[in-house]
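Issue 218. Parser rejects a valid record. Input:
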Amino acid sequence: MDGVESAWARLFAKPEEAERLDWGRSVFRFATSDEARSLINRELVENWLAYGNLRYPQFSLSHAGEKLHPTGYTRARVFGDHRHTGCADPGRIAATIDRGATLHLTGVEGWDGRVALLCAELGRALAAQVQTVAFLTAPDHFGSPPHRDGTHVFVIQAEGTKRWTLYDLPANDDWDPAYPPGEDAVTEEIELRAGEGLYVPLGMGHRARAGAEGSLHLSVMVNTPQLGEVVQAWAAQVSAAFGSQERLPIGRGGRIDAMGEVLRRIQEAPVDLEALAAAVESAIPVPDLALHLPWPR
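Output the parser choked on:
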């Protein structure tokens, strides 16, 4: 099994279904693998909050789409001679969720090795940054207002149900996540049950409402490099054609001609596309995986 197939096998019950993904164009519902379904559950979340020494903003709470101030659900803890603020207060977090809030756990791959392995393997296979956020939403509440994400998203529904309202895709690549879709742009509604997954294309407007038993899901976000990063890497490569002390002339008089000469030399400079791709991809963060300690052997 090659790298891509192995990565999809961690996410899809039937890895071959990944071939049906219409990247960036349409949603796709699928059955999640046993491994994906085991990545997160309420007991794990409870243990992370109680014993994981998580600190804000690794976790946060929102209500009706508005972020809640962390002083309402964090506490200070003393470890030896050090006092740490922003630590999880499980009791206050539970009480706030019970009043209709949503818990966000950001970057689960930063403290759970199995999630880190999924992100690392999928990231290598797709040459993209892969991150996760877990959402625990109170029964019959929305986890967020309508919004657009700047990443492709794979939803793993772990517990309960969540009804997804899907809106339009942006008309072009020049859109701002700060501007949500209008309610008249609804295109589809899908209810996910535990063991099901959903691919949401980059930029597609969406929001989701938990069912009567609440909802716990893990969002796996695939973030490919922006074209601007290609330009930056290209500029770094082309700049090697210029001497370190080459400068524009004194005064404005001859600078226009000098700039024209610079552009001519840029056009003639060779571009190594393989090296360019490697430079862009080398900047993609990969989650740290557990190392083997030197002993015992």
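Fixed in the parser; the record now loads. The chain has a mean pLDDT of 95.
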